[in-house]
Amino acid sequence: MEYLIKNLTQKNEDLALKSAKQILDDANFAAFEKLCEKSNFLFDFIKSNVCKRFYNAANKDNYKNVIKFFKLYDDTYADVFIQILLKFQDDNLPKEMLELLLEGDENEQAYSAKFFEY
User: Fold this and answer.
1) SS in 3 state form for the chain?
2) Quick check: 111 and 78 in contact, CB under 8 A?
3) Measured CA distances, 7 to 18, 40, 81, 100, 118 (Å)
């Protein structure tokens, strides 16, 4: 898992994009948690690159997997996760997000509120 984060934050765009896609495809919460732990030590341009990579790695098959990351709120990645959801949303997504807003934990509610803010 450490290798995913290392690859995700490197200059090699192909390798970084593959890592982002793997994290999204697998809904790898542990990798996201590790990324959040390291975020305080990453330069802003690296965090920005990571966000772009997540956005570019998202597709109609894996976009809802970002919801599984909502157990851990990180302001660095919140906007890109919401943008991913909005890009691929289906008719059921607003209902799912409303349910999170009403019944989710504090972190899930924060992401959900951001979704409705957009």
Assistant:
1) CHHHHHHHCCCCHHHHHHHHHHHHHHCCHHHHHHHHHHHCCCCHHHHHHHHHHHHHHCCCCCHHHHHHHHHCCCHHHHHHHHHHHHHHCCCCHHHHHHHHHHHCCHHHHHHHHHHHHC
2) yes
3) 9, 17, 20, 32, 31
Cα–Cα distance for residue pair 35/40, rounded to 1 Å: 9
Give me Rg for the CA atoms of the chain.
14
What are the structure tokens assigned to 76, written together? 């660095």
**Residue type at 78?**
A
The one-letter amino acid code at 80 reads V
Q: Which residue has the tokens 């690159």?
A: 49
Residue whose structure tokens are 């972190």: 107
Query: pLDDT tens for residues 2-51?
Result: 899 999 999 999 999 999 999 999 999 999 999 999 999 999 999 999 99
